[in-house]
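re: that chain from earlier
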Amino acid sequence: MKLSRSAALALAGALLATTSAQAEPVKLRAAWVATAGEMAVLMAFKTDVAKHWNKSYSLEAIHLQGTPSMITALAANEIELAPLAYSTLGLAIVNAHMDDLRIIADDFRDGTPGWYSFEFMVLNDGPVKTIADLKGKTLATNSIGAGPDIAMEYMLFKNHFTRPKDFTVIEAAFPNMNSLLLERKVDLISDLTPFALDPKLRAAASDLFTQRAAVGGETQMIWVAHGAFLQKNRAAVVDFLEDYLRIMQWYFDPPNRPAMVKIVSDFTKVPLAIIDKSIFNQNDFYRDPKGLPNIQALQANVDMAQTMGVLKQHLAVAKYADLSYIQAAAKRLE
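^ sequence. v structure.
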C-alpha cells in the first residue's frame, strides 16, 4: 500500500522518536555521604576516562547525610544506587522489608590491615581518657544507624553501656565534627580523612579508639540496587561499573596523583597537602581493584548488628549478592 506524503512523514517521525527514546541513556542516581574518597561524586571530574558516560547511562550524584537516609530514598525510588553500610543493609532488608535489594559491588572497606579506619576522637585535655569516661557524655555521629554509629555503639555495648540511658548522641555532618569537639560542644566525634588530619584537630585531640578496634576486623560498604531495576538495565549498569573501575584506577595511578590531588582539593576546599597525605593511598580506606566486596566480613558485620538488637533477625548476606555485574565489568579491564 502506497502511503500519502503526510502519512509517510508521520510514520518517519514516529520511528525517529522511537529510536531516539531507545537511545536515551539510563538515568542512574547514586547517593554519597562524604568525599574525598567517594567515587560516585568524583567520577564527574574524569569523564574523559569513561567509555560509556552519557551514552548508555547518565549519572547524578545525590548527597545525603548518611546511609540510613538512603533506605528512604531507595524505598521512594529517588535513587537507583546506594553505597550502604553493613548496618543499613540489614535495616533495609530485615527491618524495612526491601528484600529485593542486591549487593552488586564493593564501595570501600574500613579497617583492612595496613589501611585506614574511622577514628573516634576526644580532646587531649578533656574529661574522657577511657571508654568508661564516656558515661553521661555527648557523642557526635554523622547519622544514627550508619556504619560508624553502630561501630561506636558496639564499643560501648561491649562495655555495658546502652543508648540513651548511659550517653547522648547528636548528628552532625563530617565537615562539622572538628569544630564541635574543639569548641567542647561534644565529648567525642566520629571522624575520617581528610577532615581528621586538620592540624588544629591533631594538636588538640587523639583517638580514643578506631572502628577496627570496636568491631574487631573489617567493616564493609557495598553498592546496592533494586533487583528489578538491575535486571531491566543490566547492560547500562555493567557499563557504569566498568567506568567506575576505570576512573578509580585513574585516581589511584601514581603518575596522575598531582592532578588527582588538585581535583579533590578544589572540590572539598581541603588543603592540597592534607589531600595528598590522606586520599587514594594507604592512609585511605581500602578499595578492591576489581570492585569485589568481602562477603565474609560483611556477614560478620551484620551478625554483630543482630547481636546488639539493631536487626530483628538473622540475615544471610550471600543470598542478596549478585556479583555478576561487577565481574562482567572487571573482565573488560583485564
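The longest strand covers residues 101-110.
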